[in-house]
Specification:
six-stranded mixed sheet, about 180 residues, 11 strands
């Protein structure tokens, strides 16, 4: 008998001063039994930090040839291809041929080795952006994760402030892109 998915509901007040985006985002996420809470938090952060009109969650771990999130143009062309975690770099290099922009929100306990081995190849490729989040920040969010998520996120001058209840967490993501 297959284990059921776990449903999470999210309400995010987003104030991205760097990009001039002010939105109230609502999302329902299904966490597959094989998905970690860390990865779910990463998908939700990617949705907020990279939000644009038309950005949606895909089938993710259930569909191997789709990213975690994407947005498409009216002609079904992929505008944004977004992955989270530490995927195989070849997957991102292949994706850049099918999308206008590929973005990776990178985090994980093996990030230092992955970064040392793969980062240069990725950031020297056109239309790929890598955003690295501190693992401690992800861990703090996972430790507070509830089935109903209510965050207030402010991004200003490259810094990320996330309010969860009465507590505010802060991090400075590292952003790498060609040019």
């Amino acid at each position: 008998m297959a284990l059921p998915v776990t449903i999470y509901k999210a309400n995010i007040q987003l104030s991205d001063l760097d990009r001039g985006i002010y939105e109230t985002l609502q999302a329902t996420l299904a966490r597959h039994p094989s998905e970690t809470e860390e990865r779910l938090v990463g998908r939700l952060l990617a949705y907020a930090l990279l939000y644009e009109e038309g950005l949606v969650f895909t089938k993710g771990v259930c569909e191997g040839d789709e990213p975690d999130l994407w947005s498409k143009a009216p002609d079904d062309r992929i505008r944004s291809w977004i992955e989270v975690g530490l995927p195989d770099p070849e997957r991102l290099l292949k994706a850049r041929r099918h999308a206008d922009q590929v973005t990776l929100l990178a985090f994980g306990s093996k990030l230092p080795g992955w970064e040392h081995q793969h980062l240069d190849k990725l950031i020297n490729s056109s239309n790929i952006t890598v955003i690295i989040l501190e693992q401690e920040f992800i861990n703090q969010l996972v430790s507070r994760l509830k089935r109903t998520v209510s965050w207030s996120i402010t991004v200003t001058e490259g810094n990320l402030y996330l309010q969860d209840g009465a507590e505010t967490l802060e991090t400075s993501p590292k952003r790498y892109a060609q040019g």
